[in-house]
Hints:
By secondary structure, the protein is an alpha+beta fold.
Amino acid sequence: MIKRLSLASRLALLFAACTAVVSLLAGVLFNHASEAHFIELDQQQLDSQLVALRSTLQGVDSPSLFAQREAQLRAELNRQPELALRVTAQGQRWFDGAPGISLPEAPGLHSLQNAGTEYRVYNAPLVAGQPGSPRLTLMLDITHHQHFLQRMQHLIWLTVGLSALATALLGAWAARSGLRPLRRMGEVAASVSAHSLTQRLPQQHMPVELAELAQAFNAMLGRLDDAFQRLSAFSADIAHELRTPLSNLLTHTQVILTQPRPLEDYREALHSNLEELQWMAQLVNDMLYLAKADHGLLMPKREALVLDDEVEALIEFFALLAEDAHVSLVREGTAHTAGDRGMLRRALSNLLDNALRFTPAGGEVQVRMVETERGVTLAVENTGEGIPAALLPKLFDRFYRADPARREGSSEHAGLGLAITQSIVRAHGGRIYCESGADWTRFVIELPKRD
């Protein structure tokens, strides 16, 4: 299996490739510019030599006149050792300074290579604009130019290779230094366990891009830590709640079985155990309900509901309990919404039951409903001792009891009613919160506008 390249290696190779491409393009452009410059210089030199040769051969239009000027022509050529000349007229060569070399006949500037020597060839008539005038072919030796260009090309390739290598090394060092925070993140992630969720990445000295990633990583660790703490507390609460009833069942059963007893005693023991088992079954059902809510599996129906009718039915249900506790139940307002009848009844039932338990004799429980353009607001308020502000955010936690005097492991209330109510309200897209004063407490449910 081919080993994948690290991010630092990829960045180093990318830097090297970019540097090599830039250096190569710069070298190619410089090489073309140099060639164009040398061609321009050669053109200028050949033009100046052409002027001198035309002056030397001025008026020559026959082989006899050329013979008279040949000595002067050779003297002129001797002063330019890198220059050779061929003179032709009417298909005859009057003078050939480069015998045996096939030269281009087209007018203008040309390049030619012969026997390892580079030439710049320039064809022009002796008398410009005159047909039939003898033709001059100048050959300029440019081998030294080509040697310079070849050396420059070698230097370009060497520069490209060295710059790519240097950039790769510097890029690897820079990438490794720049990615050090990522390695730190990897170390922290590798060390995260159930006992080290409090670790956090420092954000002060990180680049802006990595600082955002570190902030998101720390936020994730914070959520994991909070979820783990809640899960640990949840497990402990379950064990705490089930310990007492299980202990009661075991003890009661063991006592009954220590000696033979009348049938009525066995029947009474079974009834007592049945109550504990029913409470435990209800606790398990509530826990399963909350687990479904945590995983988004609560799918409430969407049916049109008249909330005041639903509240009135619940008030009638709790009327006898309220009468025994000497508490009055009052309903105010009307409202309509869309939701699951059974789920909303369960949520309101939990709030009413909670309000009745904490309302002293002679007190009052009020249910107010208001329908606005934004949705429905339903408040359940009861008189009685208020709840400290510090405890309000904890009321909807599982197994939380605001009354510290409640008996441990009681089979009456496990502290799950408000948690279930919150899950139901959230499943309907709403929210629930609690307000409390010196002698009153109010639970407020806000549901969005029905479809």
